[in-house]
Amino acid sequence: MMGIKAEPFAFPVKHDELALIVIDMQRDFAEPGGFGASLGNDVSRITRIVPDVKRLIQGFRNAGLPVIHTMECHRPDLSDLPPAKRDRGNPALRIGDEGPMGRILISGEPGTAILPELAPVKGEVVIEKPGKGAFYATDLGTVLQQKGIRQLVFAGVTTEVCVQTTMREANDRGYECLLAEEATESYFPEFKAAAIAMIRAQGAIVGWTAHVDDILESIAHA
Isochorismatase-like domain: which residues (predicted)? Predict the structure, then answer.
């Protein structure tokens, strides 16, 4: 068994059981005028990881390994949006309201779409999730089971919210999880640092973290 150089120790990779999950690289979180910016966040922190996320996606495609994309979004009738979630954030602009890129975080709206540079290609799975974690109210578990996946590499945003939540969900389901450090980001650098520390604490209690170059080097030999 090969290992990917990682923290807190080498990730025991099994290439035939490995997939990449790219979390919520959506226009509403990364572009000026989107939902993230409306909350007062510096969206340039998100766009700066796009080249590394793109390299990671291309590396998995070149190796013939699965790439799965997630999008946080809700039904147009808001039937899957709890009031407790809608009532948080910016009182002037909430999920479901009309924003500069269509209705905010609603399935099918322009702002909900994945950034064009990272767009899925034919055959790649896209999971629309109404929650922070990608397993909640989705068929992600079934997809992974059908593909024989037991190990997951994570990229995307934000590190401390949707990425970490999904990693914790996956960890509880028995998946081995590896976070690509340069391919994830937060609007708050201290939150990213804290999430990384929590993930790999106590002997990889939630998972491992590694650099994109080390992951790419490993999967090039898959």
Answer: 19-207
